[in-house]
Amino acid sequence: MINQFEINGYVKRQITELLEQRQMDLNTAMEDEAVNREIAALLYGGLPAMLRKFYSLNKFQGFFWEKRAFLTEHIANRLDAALKRG
Question: What is the distance between the alpha carbons of residues 80 and 77, in angstroms, rounded to a whole number?
């Protein structure tokens, strides 16, 4: 199911700016709980409204922290795909 969602250009830009401000790469950011929650909030804002109705931000952030090892690689791949699309 997670493969169905793309990271749009706006959210990609927000994540990139956050990482630059924190002077972190994605791996480091995902291992820092506070930054992980910020990235989750940015991605959550880019999800379809129907999905946000079913899952609260708090629940999404909890999932994001628990599954960070899997999600780090997935997000990196999605960010690369967004970069290639322009």
Answer: 5
What distance separates the 2 farthest-apart alpha carbons in the chain?
Answer: 34
Would residue 53 count as lying in a domain? Answer: yes
Reported as a single tens digit per residue, the pLDDT across 12-37 is 999 999 999 999 999 999 999 999 99
- What's the domain count of the chain? 1
For residues 14 and 3, give the distance between their C-alpha atoms in angstroms, rounded to a whole number: 20
| Residue-number span of the structural domain to which 66 is assigned | 9-84
Asked if residue 68 is part of any domain, the answer here is: yes
72, 29 Cβ separation under 8 angstroms: no
